[in-house]
């Protein structure tokens, strides 16, 4: 096998390992369901709220915690939608363009899942507190049928991340809280997709990749507050991820058979975006609190996936910076019961002409309701339900197998994401002691 052909195979396998879809969530493959309390108001005002449940958004949230607090949460994510072929074509060497074939409609390719999260805060004195949040900001599974029209770009993908965020926060003044944190993130990925043989009558080959790695980022934030308003600002850094894993290519026949391989040291580097978060909580009456939050994502950092030696190449992704905007309300209907509602809009970082079936992302609206029941002065329960509505969009990224070789095989993708939506059901508990 030539080095260039090995590079082509490894690159085409590594790209989908990283750029997977988590369609039911904030944007692209980022998950925001890190608190049931937050989900109930569509993730508005989290950067300005207090307590362990807000640690993911702002480490300053625990600065003047009076008692130790534990918050746990889980979200059941139920996505639905169709990824439809509108005439995708493939051209094998020496042949004319022909339909890619296979099942032309992939229904619900993104699997249902449960996302857990938790956080704890300990006050050292009346102004300083330590905290720890454990979340999973990039995790999901996609599963296309083996005969799907999208099989050459997406078959099965499984991604799991664990973000461990130790934090420290200080109330510098009665009106100012500050906080900082380190994000220690573990990533584990596995995936497969099909490879075309030289004749349509031959069964497809396949490539499989699995890999993992530990990486570091950081978070810093402030909160300014008085008796009726709190404004929060935080910055979550981009994280440079480095994955090391194994790549296997099998099922290539005829002249391609010598290119079946097993690589035990495949490596890739890529960035997940920074977040600039600004929000506020405003007490309109003794019972009513208004919430708002704007998040700017630097998804343009995910411009390419860079593969190390001996491959030494880069795969363009061309994501763009994006944002989300949310508004919501908390209303205390009784001393033990608070109801919530909210709405969030987010635009996708994927661009027309660069969107493939593995990341069928689009602009979306998130509608939320929820509430809290205080079972005692130290124990409360949170519940929330979200309905996420995705705009229909194109699946239109032109790809090719074996790029730069004599058997280069272009695939002109022409598909759509239709009728996509998700229901997210969240529940959690908060305990002080």
Automatic annotation (TrEMBL):
<keyword id="KW-0812">Transmembrane</keyword>
<feature type="signal peptide">
    <location>
        <begin position="1"/>
        <end position="26"/>
    </location>
</feature>
<dbReference type="GO" id="GO:0015483">
    <property type="term" value="F:long-chain fatty acid transporting porin activity"/>
</dbReference>
<comment type="similarity">
    <text>Belongs to the OmpP1/FadL family.</text>
</comment>
<protein>
    <submittedName>
        <fullName>Long-chain fatty acid transport protein</fullName>
    </submittedName>
</protein>
<keyword id="KW-0998">Cell outer membrane</keyword>
<dbReference type="GO" id="GO:0009279">
    <property type="term" value="C:cell outer membrane"/>
</dbReference>
<keyword id="KW-1134">Transmembrane beta strand</keyword>
<dbReference type="Pfam" id="PF03349">
    <property type="entry name" value="Toluene_X"/>
</dbReference>
<keyword id="KW-0732">Signal</keyword>
<dbReference type="InterPro" id="IPR005017">
    <property type="entry name" value="OMPP1/FadL/TodX"/>
</dbReference>
<keyword id="KW-0472">Membrane</keyword>
């Amino acid at each position: 096998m030539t080095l260039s052909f090995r590079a082509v195979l490894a690159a085409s396998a590594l790209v989908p390992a990283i750029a997977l879809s988590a369609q039911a969530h904030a944007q692209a493959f980022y998950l925001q369901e890190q608190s049931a309390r937050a989900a109930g108001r569509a993730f508005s005002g989290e950067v300005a709220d207090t307590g362990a449940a807000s640690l993911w958004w702002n480490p300053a949230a625990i600065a003047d915690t009076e008692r130790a607090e534990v918050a746990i949460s889980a979200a059941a994510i139920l996505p639905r939608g169709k990824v439809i072929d509108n005439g995708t074509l493939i051209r094998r060497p020496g042949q004319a363009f022909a339909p890619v074939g296979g099942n032309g409609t992939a229904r619900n390719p993104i699997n249902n899942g449960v996302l857990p999260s938790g956080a704890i805060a300990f006050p050292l004195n009346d102004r300083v507190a330590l905290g720890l949040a454990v979340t999973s900001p990039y995790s999901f599974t996609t599963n296309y049928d083996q005969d799907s029209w999208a099989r050459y770009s997406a078959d099965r993908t499984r991604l799991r991340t664990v973000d461990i965020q130790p934090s420290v926060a200080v109330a510098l003044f009665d009106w100012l809280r500050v906080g900082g944190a380190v994000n220690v993130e573990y990533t584990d990925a596995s995936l497969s997709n099909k490879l075309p043989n030289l004749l349509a009558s031959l069964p497809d080959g396949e490539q499989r990749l699995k890999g993992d790695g530990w990486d570091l980022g950081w978070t810093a934030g402030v909160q300014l507050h008085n008796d009726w308003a709190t404004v929060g600002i935080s910055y979550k850094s981009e994280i440079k991820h480095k994955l090391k894993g194994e790549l296997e290519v099998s099922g290539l026949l005829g002249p391609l058979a010598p290119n079946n391989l097993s690589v035990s040291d495949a490596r890739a580097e890529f960035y997940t975006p920074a977040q600039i978060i600004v929000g506020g909580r405003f007490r309109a009456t003794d019972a009513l609190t208004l919430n708002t939050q704007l998040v700017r994502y630097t998804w343009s950092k995910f411009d390419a996936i860079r593969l190390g030696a001996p491959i030494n190449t880069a795969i363009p992704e061309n994501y763009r910076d994006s944002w989300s905007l949310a508004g919501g309300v908390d209303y205390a209907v009784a001393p033990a019961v608070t109801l919530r509602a909210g709405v969030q809009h987010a635009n996708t970082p994927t661009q027309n002409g660069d969107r493939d079936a593995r990341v069928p992302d689009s602009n979306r609206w998130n509608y939320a309701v929820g509430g809290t029941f205080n079972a005692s002065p130290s124990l409360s329960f949170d519940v929330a339900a979200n309905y996420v509505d995705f705009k229909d969009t194109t699946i239109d990224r032109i790809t090719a197998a074996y790029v730069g070789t004599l058997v280069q095989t272009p695939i002109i993708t022409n598909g759509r994401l239709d009728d996509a939506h998700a229901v997210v059901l969240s529940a959690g508990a908060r305990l002080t002691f």
